[in-house]
């Protein structure tokens, strides 16, 4: 990717807190006008990485360039070009919707006339026309989320950092929120968003999976799932519990998860096969139908995090 097409580039990014390696030698490249996702469990290093990338936290090692600026040295210059939103509602609950937006506009040094015009635009765009005088503390979870996003983009940032912004809202609000994100990217904004929801990760243009501070996979959702081609099986049986016990002893089986009346089986890259699964079940007189199933991002997540847990010392970017 040409340098002019890159919004964020990090090399060897690390952050240590004493003996804890919160982020460990991470390399990232985020293109302009992309939604780039960070997927990982709590404690995987997502929030720490975001704070370093936007200049809020100094890395222990590594180089960061964001919108052509060296971070953290030029973090102050970067702030006028970025927006930042966390999972915790950080606006003033005792101010109205309009007052919150006006305060954020003043923080960004937007002239009063332009600020009023911009706030009117945001009230309409984020459906607050009839709630502009309502106290933020009385809004629903989904409404607070929309207000926080409106506040984060009041100055039209080129780059938006979102740290698990939908963790406390209902599925419908999450869906509406993501529609807003796509509108922002179409208008030219680059977005880096962390999540632990698989359905949200599937919406990203590109995705990094973090585990124990390491980058264990990086690619588009389609690239990552294609990397598991031939390694996912569906076992349909009325004896799910017994079948799961049998499969747990079969070499090459990474996981066997019950999904309704079926088992979803993930195989290691160099071991395991459908024939082995069928033979093992038949040997224990477990009647089952076994067949291939399309890999999912959850399968990718299990595959790469299991590899990390098994002690892989050099997680492979772009591959699973």
From TrEMBL:
Keywords: ATP-binding, Nodulation, Nucleotide-binding, Transport. Residues 8-237 form the ABC transporter domain. CDD domains: ABC_DR_subfamily_A. GO terms for molecular function: ATP binding. The keyword Cell inner membrane does not apply. Belongs to the ABC transporter superfamily. This is ABC transporter ATP-binding protein.
């Amino acid at each position: 990717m040409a340098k002019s097409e890159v919004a964020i580039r990090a090399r060897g990014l690390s952050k240590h807190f004493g003996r804890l390696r919160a982020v460990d030698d991470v390399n990232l490249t985020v293109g302009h006008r992309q939604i780039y996702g960070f997927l990982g469990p709590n404690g995987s290093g997502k929030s720490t990485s975001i704070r370093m990338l936007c200049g809020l936290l100094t890395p222990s090692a590594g180089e960061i360039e964001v919108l052509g600026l060296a971070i953290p040295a030029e973090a102050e210059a970067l702030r006028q070009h970025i927006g930042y939103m966390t999972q915790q509602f950080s606006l003033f609950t005792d101010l109205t919707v309009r007052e919150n937006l006006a305060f954020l506009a003043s923080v960004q040094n937007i002239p009063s006339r332009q600020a009023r015009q911009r706030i009117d635009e945001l009230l309409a765009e984020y459906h607050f026309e009839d709630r502009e005088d309502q106290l933020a503390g009385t809004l629903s979870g989904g409404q607070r989320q929309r207000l926080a996003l409106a506040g984060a983009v009041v100055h039209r940032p080129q780059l938006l950092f979102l740290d698990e912004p939908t963790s406390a809202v209902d599925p419908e609000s999450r869906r509406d929120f993501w529609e807003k994100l796509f509108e922002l990217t179409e208008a030219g904004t680059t977005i880096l968003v962390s999540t632990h929801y698989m359905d949200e990760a599937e919406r990203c243009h590109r995705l990094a999976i973090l585990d124990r501070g390491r980058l264990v996979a990086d690619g588009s959702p389609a690239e990552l799932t294609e990397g598991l081609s031939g390694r996912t099986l569906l076992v349909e049986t009325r004896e799910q519990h017994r079948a799961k016990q049998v499969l747990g002893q079969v070499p090459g089986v990474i996981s066997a998860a019950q999904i309704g009346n079926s088992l979803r089986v993930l195989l290691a890259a160099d071991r395991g096969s459908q024939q082995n699964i069928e033979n093992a079940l038949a040997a224990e007189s477990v009647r089952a139908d076994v067949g291939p199933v399309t890999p999912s991002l959850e399968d990718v997540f299990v595959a790469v995090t299991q590899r990390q847990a098994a002690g892989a010392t050099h997680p492979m970017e772009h591959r699973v």
